[in-house]
Design goal:
This protein folds into two domains: 145 residues, Medium-chain alcohol dehydrogenases, catalytic domain (Quinone Oxidoreductase, Chain A, domain 1, Alpha-Beta Complex), CATH 3.90.180.10; 139 residues, NAD(P)-binding Rossmann-like Domain (Rossmann fold), CATH 3.40.50.720. Helix 3 packs across helix 9. It starts with a strand and ends with a strand. The chain has 322 residues and is α/β, with parallel strands linked by helices. It holds the Pfam family ADH_N. One of its GO terms (molecular function) is oxidoreductase activity.
Length: 322
């Protein structure tokens, strides 16, 4: 089968063996894939958790049909329309654990379905499970114009946040954040953004920050968070290191929580997918939680899709179809 593989000379479409499902695995005939920032790093040879390097079939998000079941797979049948996440997605067929997928709603095509699994699982876990957002609270999403950031704002609104602040350093994308739930949009490179957040929260700061930027805004985040507030660190778009004011952190008694899928067991990931299904799936089926598709590329043009992502001018998801 055809797959997009990182080789000695970089990523390219090549022929690999069609995988065979074992245990609780499901074989998926892939129809569409969503691109993610981690994929971009892996096209350059970087590792993501335990995955990456020469010989890696790239990709982590897909939509398709069940083609075959492992002997212990449950909950789906051959022919079911599904979407999910996991490694080796950029291929004609991929394997998925039966607990790491969703049934794709009947009112959603494969392109649309391929945009959702990573954003839904990541941001429900960050905003609701770890962020413990309650109705009437306030939230700031750092890096809000990314696909997962757009989803985070929508989930926050769905869960009753009274004020949602989104950050983006790009003026065009910042201007569109209100379409996805932002009441206030700020530029995290503007030295005055903390003052804007404090003014919008009567000087208190927000109850919750979901931070995808990390390093360069760490101390500003502490200033923008309410006493006894929470910061959930889900990424490092701004870098893995930065100055951190431990005294300010202690003085404001902030809970600082780190989350990632890279070190989670399959049992933990299954539990996260279960929580999405239990808590917000009706909103997914009603199309209240959805992401814009910026551009769709054919699989043969997947290199162009990554060039488009690297140019960093898109809003929403880039999709590749097979």
């Amino acid at each position: 089968m055809k797959a997009y593989v990182y080789g000695p000379n970089g990523p390219e479409i090549t022929d690999v063996a069609k995988p065979v499902p074992k245990g609780t695995q499901v074989l998926v005939k892939v129809h569409a894939c969503g691109l993610n920032r981690a994929d971009l790093g892996m096209t350059k040879g970087h590792v993501h958790g335990a995955a990456g390097g020469v010989g890696t079939v790239l990709g982590m998000e897909w939509a398709g049909e069940v083609a075959e079941l492992g002997p212990d797979a449950k909950g789906v049948k051959i022919g079911d329309k599904i979407m999910g996440s996991g490694g080796a997605a950029f291929a004609e067929y991929t394997l998925a654990d039966h607990g790491r997928l969703f049934r794709a709603p009947s009112n959603m095509n494969f392109d649309e379905a391929a945009t959702l699994p990573v954003a839904l699982a990541t941001m429900h876990n960050a905003v609701v499970t770890n962020g413990a957002l309650q109705p009437g609270q306030t939230v700031l999403i750092q890096g809000a114009s990314s696909g997962v950031g757009l989803m985070a704002m929508q989930i926050a609104k769905l869960k009753g946040a009274k004020l949602v602040v989104g950050s983006s350093t790009d003026a065009m994308r910042r201007g569109r954040l209100k379409e996805f739930g932002a009441d206030l949009a700020v530029d995290s490179k503007d030295p005055g953004w903390v003052d804007q957040v404090l003014q919008a929260t009567s000087g208190e700061g927000v109850d919750l920050i979901v931070d995808q930027i990390s390093g360069p805004v760490a101390n500003q985040n502490l200033k923008a968070t309410k006493v006894k507030g929470r910061i959930v660190n889900v990424g490092r778009l701004g870098g893995t290191h930065g100055d951190f004011n431990f005294d300010l952190h202690a003085a404001r008694r902030i809970q600082y929580i780190g989350v990632t899928f890279r070190t989670r067991s399959i049992e933990e990931i299954r539990a996260i997918f279960d929580e999405v299904r239990k808590d917000i799936w009706p909103a997914v089926e009603a199309r209240k939680l959805q992401l814009p598709i910026d551009q769709v590329y054919k699989f043969a043009d997947i290199g162009k899709a990554f060039e488009h992502m690297e140019a960093n001018k898109h809003l929403g998801k880039i999709v590749v179809t097979l």
